[in-house]
Every structure is written in C-alpha cells, then in structure tokens.
Specification:
single chain; alpha/beta; three-stranded antiparallel β-sheet; binds pyridoxal-5'-phosphate
C-alpha cells in the first residue's frame, strides 16, 4: 500500500514522535480510515512519507504490536488485526480518543480564540488589578484614558500605527463598533458596500441600523477596488486577512482604495480583527496609516484574548470619535470599564505581549497541523498563514450542507462559506477555525473525524 494516511506529526510537541505516530494510527483505525485486515505501509514507506527516521515508525509499530491490534504476517507485511478500543463502531458512546474529540465541544467553527491558552495566573492577576480602583459612579463614554493609552501603544508595537490616545475610542468589540458606526455616521437607507463573501455579523449589524448592504467583490487577495459599486457611503473590509477567504490586500490595492474613498468622500471601515496573528511575512501598512482622514480602524481583543472581555478599539478621525461618543451619550450606551481595566493590566505588566508570543507560536503550529493533515488526505486548504481559520473548498452547496450535518451528528461543529454571502453564494466550503480546541490533540482528533467524513463521501 502507498502512503496516504491522514497523519501529521508535530516536531514542536513534547511527546516523542513515535508515541505521536502510534497515537494517530490508533485514531485513524478507530475512525475506520484503516480497516480490520487492512495492510499498513512498511516502516520504510511510512518513514519516507512522514519525513522521519525508520526508528520512529518501527518504534510506533512495536508499540501497536505489543498492544495486540496489528500483526505481521511473515514476508507479507503488517495488518490491522483488531480495532482499537474507542472505535465508534464498537463503543459509540465511549468518550475516549477520537470520540472524545468529536463529543460536543469539538468546535472547528471560525471565530473563537485559543482561550484555554490564557494562563490562569495572568488572568487572575489582571482581574485583581482591575478591581483595585474604587467603583466608578458614572460611565466614561470614550473609555478609560489609561486604556486608550495602552491601545495606542499596542497599535505602535503590533500594527505599525502611531495614533494619539485621543484618536482611540474604547469599544465593546468590533461588531458592536460596526453597529454604532451604522447609527452614528449614516442615515437609514444609506448604502454600504461589504465584502462578499464577508463577515455575516458586520452585514447584520449594518442592516439592523437601517442601512442597505451591497456586495463588494473579493478575490484571493481581498477586496477588488476596481469593482466597487457606485453611490456607496462607506466600504467595510478586512485587508490584513480577508474574512473568510484569507487573502492579504496587496499594497497597490490599498493605495487605490484610499484614493477611491477620497474621490467619493466615502468612509473605509478597516476591520483588523486578527491583524496581530501573522505567521510568515511582516504585515503590510494598515489602511489607517495610509489614509487616516478616510479610514475608521477597528481592533479587538476577541482573537488575542477572548470575546467575553467585550473589549475593542476604534482609531478614527476626530469627527467620527465625536459622533460615536455623542450617540453613546444620547442612547445611554458605552463599553464596560471592567474589560478595559483587565486589558490595561495585562498590557502594562507585559503579560499580554508574552501571551501573544505563545498564541502566535501555538496557532502557527496548529495551522501547520491542519494543512498537513488535510493535504495528506488530498484536501485543498486556502488562506494565508495568519489568523485562526482556513478555508477548505467543497464542490457545491449540497456537499457543504451534508458535511456540516454529518459532522454535527458526530459531535463536531463546523461552519460553511455559504453563510458569508449576503446574496446568492458562489463559493462553497468550510470556514475551518483551529483555535477553539483547548489542546492540539483535540484538534488532531477533530481533523481525523473530518477526513473520515470526507472519505465516506
Ligand atoms: C471578520 C471578523 N471581524 C470581527 C470579529 C469579532 O469581533 P468582536 O468579537 O470584537 O465583535 C470576528 C470574529 O469572528 C471576525 O471574524
């Protein structure tokens, strides 16, 4: 047999490669990818396919022999002779191995951060520090001044943007900020172009403010400026890492977009939801640094920490900041100060910068695991080396729906591209998030479930 098993070893993990390999072979068999009586690749073929030494594959096979579920027939190779415990076919409800990963909670939908990676000690320390000041008697509509300063420093350090703290407005997160902009800057019936495919909640928030959302075409590099519709008051886009397709807007198109907005007196809403998370090249200049007069830049702690903090920022021209603060005062709304205090404590202690380094290294490894596992199984993966998700293309709407439903039956939560279209969907596939599983092993198990489902058709 040739080598086409969905196995990806992680050289950065503490577990020895042979143990990882034995564990993944068990999972593969438990999931029916390897069947009873099936011949395994030779230790030499497997070693070549995985790019490891034969000692590793031989040690893994030894382990599986000792456990009694593979056997060698002299001269004719190695065969699966028993299905390992945890096989869904034998013990459907046993929460172990792959089944464990596929229990409700194996969540590969996009959007979640690696919340389990926040060290409890730094989290507790930040919340304690946030409780030090006396209770506030009144809301602070623009946000705490120490938070605005901390965000300005974050922008310089991580995004190459140097705003004054006065240009920074605290928000309750990106989606809340988009909703506020929809009401503060525009009139009901105004037309806004939103990337298509794009972020469904941005479309929802703008529509809820009475605006008319029209599609802005996107290709593999992001928004296509030349095709932007006429008559729009603003365009919403994700240039650092297009959501969902995963492209990075090239420098030339950035310059064109700024020129387009200036010519028409339109606003650009730059959603920089995961801009801190890049695993290859340095990021390109933000739209906000190229066109600070026409760009409203939105950042969030949702990807680098957790959306439960309800904490983000807007960096925008003074008239925009003033309009949003005015709306908040009129409607009695405004972001919670608790999240801002927690963020400020994390940033000023240096814990946030350390956490960010861990998040980058963990998510880069996870992305590698996703790409290796799915490519080995012959599945394409799209999207830049960034953020917390990739796109797995599928041939059509029905294939997408069927796969998502079949995965749900196995306790694996998936999401699809169709949801990212305001109009008729023209691309199909999974928007596959890899940050939510608490550990890489859970991610591996969930990926194997996915591969098995794809193979089952
Ligand atoms: C494109 C995009 N923007 C914004 C957000 C979320 O931002 P927030 O939680 O701050 O509303 C997400 C989260 O999934 C996203 O995918």
């Amino acid at each position: 047999m040739g080598f086409d098993l969905p196995i990806a070893l992680d050289r950065t993990a503490a577990a020895p490669l042979a143990d990882q390999l034995a564990g993944q072979l068990r999972l593969v068999a438990a999931h029916g990818v390897l069947k009873m009586g099936e011949k395994l690749p030779s230790t030499r073929t497997l070693a070549a396919g995985l790019g490891v030494s034969r000692t590793v594959t031989a040690a893994a096979y030894e382990q599986l022999y000792a456990e009694g579920w593979i056997a060698g027939r002299h001269g004719s190779g190695t065969y699966v002779v028993a299905v390992p415990p945890g096989s869904p076919s034998r013990r459907p409800s046993r929460p172990t191995d792959l089944v464990d990963a596929a229990e409700p909670g194996a969540d590969l939908r996009p959007g979640s951060p690696w919340a389990a990676g926040i060290r409890p000690a730094i989290w507790r320390r930040a919340w304690r520090a946030a409780a030090d000041p006396a209770p506030d008697a009144r809301p602070i509509r623009a946000g705490l001044s120490e938070y605005r300063t901390a965000v300005a420093e974050h922008a310089v350090r991580h995004r190459g943007l140097a705003p004054e703290p006065a240009d920074v407005l605290a928000t309750g997160g990106t989606t809340v900020a988009v909703a506020e902009l929809g009401r503060a800057l525009f009139e009901p019936g105004d037309i806004i172009a939103v990337e298509e495919p794009g972020y469904p909640r941005a479309m929802g928030a703008l529509r809820a403010a009475g605006l008319v959302v029209v599609p802005a075409r996107v290709d593999q590099d992001g928004i296509v400026v030349a095709d932007l519709p006429d008559g729009v008051r603003a365009v919403y886009c994700t240039p650092a890492h297009q959501f969902p397709l995963g492209g990075t807007l090239p420098a030339g198109r950035r310059v064109d977009l700024i020129a387009w907005a200036r010519e028409r007196g339109a606003w650009i809403i730059e959603d920089d939801y995961d801009g801190e998370l890049r695993y290859d090249v340095a990021p390109l200049p933000l739209l906000a640094s190229l066109g600070p007069d026409v760009v409203i830049h939105l950042g969030t702690t949702s990807k680098i920490l957790t959306p439960t903090l309800g904490c983000g920022w807007m960096i925008a021209p003074p008239e925009v900041v003033a309009s949003v603060v005015h709306l908040r005062a009129e409607t009695g709304a405004g972001p919670s100060l608790a999240g801002q205090r927690v963020y400020t404590a994390l940033a000023s202690s240096g814990d946030l910068a350390r956490h960010l380094r861990r998040v980058r290294s963990e998510l880069a490894a996870r992305r590698g695991l996703v790409v290796a596992t799915l490519s080995t199984a012959g599945q394409d993966v799209l999207g830049d080396r960034a953020g917390t998700h990739v796109v797995v293309p599928l041939p059509g709407a029905q294939a997408e729906r069927t796969l998502i439903a079949a995965a749900r039956d196995r306790g694996l939560l998936l999401d699809g591209l169709q949801r990212c279209f305001a109009g008729r969907p023209s691309r199909f596939g999974l928007t596959l998030g890899y940050a939510a599983p608490p550990h890489r092993e859970v991610l591996s198990g969930a990926l194997l479930t996915l591969v098995a489902l794809r193979r089952a058709g």
